[in-house]
Fold each of these.
Amino acid sequence: MDIQELHRIILELIPDCKLWFLDGKNSDGKIVSNPNIGYGHRTMQYADGKTKEFYRIGISANTAGISVYILGIDDKTYLSRTFGDKIGKASITGYCIKFKALKEIHIKTLEAAIRYGYEQNP
């Protein structure tokens, strides 16, 4: 139920975003990640010059809880420095906020992180 609530919250924050529903399989049908939902749109550019269309914000449920991906932030310490001491029981990496359940985190802080990632992400 938390993933459904989080989906609702994100759609309230960014109602007109493009939605991505990914099953976690690569082009060969091999499972390479957990299924996830993405929000928004960005063009990623690789070192070789190739580009790929992808989402800005993503969510995924797994056995450990929920992961929220905030992609495209250049400063890999920004999320933890800005939201780490306010979010509650979550771990934060350069682009991911992980937690067991919504009740264990401060939802307004998570919303602020999502909003930042969406708005600061070209």
Amino acid sequence: MKQRFRRRYRTAKYIFYKETLIDYREHFWTFLGSFVGIALIGFIHSEYLTVHDNLFIIGSFGASSVLIYGIINSPLAQPRNLIGGHVVCAFVGVCVYKLIPNELWLSSALSVSLSIVAMQITKTLHPPGGATALIANIGSEKIHALGFMYVFSPVLTGVLILLLVAIVFNNATPHRKYPHNKHWYKLWKRSYRGKRTRNPK
């Protein structure tokens, strides 16, 4: 029992030590990637879409940036989770709001809860997705007016921009590698990480 406790204590201490190290290169690329990702979405929104009263940026993109630019090795930050999590949650959020448009407390709670379960089932857990589902219910009239278009824009289009920027900036130096799974585009495979398969002899 004592050995197990000591082993866990050493592991926790090591993780805490690693997470609190100051790595200026890591911080630089984290800043640059997140800045360009959000700035690009915001620029497109402000320069081209505001005139047409379209929406292109939502709050949950900020939380996604923390993961895909700051914790790039996390399973929750991988492309499958980023894209799938937001799209699944956006769809669930819109569906719930359409079914229960007049009870905000109920639609909000159902949206978040069902979204979490949906992400678990589809293996696309991405914490900011919960906010995407919530925004579909508590957002402005402009968001409500989008209906299911909310799933495609701003959600899918914005997520794809964040992903492309992450692939560029997270692979700009040898000490960063993203995504963790080089076969990430195989969205039909229900796994968080790429698994090596041994060739039969």
Amino acid sequence: MTSLTISIPDSLHKSIQAIALKEGISVNQFIASAAGEKMASLLTLDYLRQEAAAGRRDDFERFLTAVPDREADPGDELGTALPKSVGATPD
């Protein structure tokens, strides 16, 4: 194991302590878990970017042509007014 000394704001430390206590884990376990989750997130983004860069438009269009041309299932229709949280462009 490697030991690290870090400086974080007091308010963040107190929040971490409270959550760790509630979860029944140590502050060290909480921070190690948080660092692992962040690392996994960044590695996933790198992987997806690599996969996207390796993609070919022809493969994508061939996939799309295999999708049946039919009406959307109830509830899956595209509306004209999407909520801002679902891809609507800012005004």
Amino acid sequence: MILRAVLLTCALAQAGVAETCRTDTVYLKGDWGDARFSVEVADDDRERAQGLMHREHLPGSAGMLFVYDRPQTLSFWMRNTLIPLDLIFIDQTGTVQNIHHSAQPLDETPIPGGSGLTHVLEINGGLAKAMGITVGTVLRHPTFLATDARWPC
């Protein structure tokens, strides 16, 4: 029932994909369709270290977007994270390069995302598969430079 409500929320959000870019919203599109998530942006060391730790709930149409200044190899873990998450690893063009589905809460095993990455989008675990989000999906957000982005603001 919760998954159905999340999918409906994301489907209803699809109508707004053409809206102006906002820092609190990320847009996704691919062969599977398109969607919009409300996001908190973690773009400094303190915010990235905190992430979604200690939270007991994440609304279905929400997430956290981790932003890095330069392309690099990224690896995450689930220390002190209480909810399962999908980790979507993205390069500087806004293209999804890797997805780790349903990372287990409180697991400190490193989750490698790959190299050449500038962003990671965390959403509720299982949602990426349920929506059909795949490698090659493109994101739109103001933190992607217009000169690099495949889908610029």
